[in-house]
Amino acid sequence: MAVQKIEPSYTARVTAVGARNGHVSSDDGVLSHDLKTPGGKSGETGATNPEQLFAAGYAACFQGALFGAGRKHEIDVSASKVEVDVSIGKAEDSRSSLAVAIRVTIPDIDRETTQTLADAAHETCPYSRATRGNIEVTVEAT
Fold this sequence. Notes:
Blueprint: E1 14-17, E2 23-26, E3 32-34, H1 50-72, E4 81-90, E5 96-105, H2 111-124, H3 126-131, E6 136-141
Helix pairs in contact: 1-2
């Protein structure tokens, strides 16, 4: 599949220093977080990690796509909840890779309809499009 070029409507710029035990900050100063290696090998807490930041971005983006799917199907999904787990580990080729599990809950909407909306969101979400075919991503209605 050929890479599609975009006409940017927004560009986020974040700078990282110190890798997994460093700091990330956005050029506008809104994002500013210390980082620690996941699992806290040294027992330290109080900092985020790249996997949490990726999960946060994916969850928010996916819910935006879910809102779009809800509008298209004329279903109110404003009370929905999207949980995203991002796991890091060794792939079959022994290199580090990611896996994503997305769980979607929509109160008062049956599981089958929720799955239909979640699948539609997965087709349009920019994070889902970016990861499709690159890492394992599962989408489940709960």
